[in-house]
Please model this.
Amino acid sequence: MKKTLFTTLLLTNSIFATVNVATTYNYLGEVTKAIGGDLVKVDVLANPKLDPHFITPKPSLIGKLRKEDLLIINGGGLEIGWLPPLLKSANNSKINNGGNGFLDVSGAVTMMDKPANVSRAYGDVHPDGNPHFAIDISNITPIAELISMKLAQVDPDNRAKYSENFTTFKSHIEELQSKLEAITKGCQGKKIVQYHELFNYALEALEVEKAGDIEPLPGIAPSSKHTLELINLIKDQKITTILQDVYHEKKTAQFIADKTGATVKIVPHDVGATDTSDTLDSFYTEVATQICQ
Model:
């Protein structure tokens, strides 16, 4: 009888120890799982194979948000086009902006490409800067630390465990960065063309020069004139690599490659965006490999 009661108490404590967390993107889900372990249950809202700017607000997502204790978002305006209507429909005050169960991880990083002016004339720009900072592995540790601190705030009884898991995570990322040095060695000074302003953080960290974008402005489809200018640029500067994401149209990049002899590299923007990037390790390894080799 005592054994049964003890087991019941353990199960009950385990149930109450679980923090229900929603993350907007897969990379945030992976970090949260690493920090939270068995103490968290994570729901990821966005499909990593689709455009992160535009997610269909499905009723199933509203149902998930209604029961969450914590919502972790990328921020920087990346979710502005799809998350607010979901939060309004979910009507969960805990996870609204300003609530105890809301975390915007963009506060953990220094954002780049902040526009001097915000106007449609400059394309689909983000007022706070480029929100695609997760592509740079050096940003993932401060993001993880912020998530650890937030989990400890939401679930203070397990503060020590979250801190311990963060220390382990930080060491693992440092080891991964050391391994990636063999891939990125010699990458400095390389010139590339990319489709969208998606990989700027990684390019800056790797000291790779972005010679041009296939989009003339963020979110604006390439014109024939702009495409021809890029073809001439690639030929003149002997650029060999075009970085293409998984969700934009691929015909233009391939057309440019056919005209110039450059190679199109498909680079994931999130964990799981490609079939070979389903973990944080494989994601950052693939980013480094596609850009540098």
Summary: Confidence is low (pLDDT under 50) at residues 1-15. Residues 64 and 190 are 44 Å apart (CA to CA).
